[in-house]
Amino acid sequence: MPVQTGEGRNGAWKKQDYVIEYDQSSQYPRKMLFNLWGDKIDQYNIQEGQTIRVSFDIDCREYNGRWYNDIRAWKVDPDDGSGIASGDQYPDMSSAAPPVVSPSDDGSDLPF
Description:
This protein has one helix at 40-44, and strands at 3-8, 11-22, 30-37, 52-63, 66-78. By secondary structure, it is mainly β. It has a domain at 3-78: CATH 2.40.50. The strands form two sheets. The protein has a three-stranded antiparallel β-sheet with strand order 1-2-3, with no helix packed on it. It has a two-stranded antiparallel ribbon with strand order 4-5. The radius of gyration is 19 Å and the shape is globular.
């Protein structure tokens, strides 16, 4: 998407939105829109067709009685297909089974 710019109380700002497609092996691939702010736009220099791994925060805000989600990337790495992004210490766990939590031995049903 095109870069958006403006002036705020803290000075000039720029933002760029990106639409990525994930789960490409699925019959129905999913899409997600995320954004980068400021110098990160030039730092990561994302190109159309590039395969990437995105680390992001999700936030929500209210404006005029409506709620809006914001997915803001804080790190973007090229994806080499290994499941581990460069500089990342955790493999892709999206297809792993959830951890099994057993009740504690104190007789309560709480898992902690």
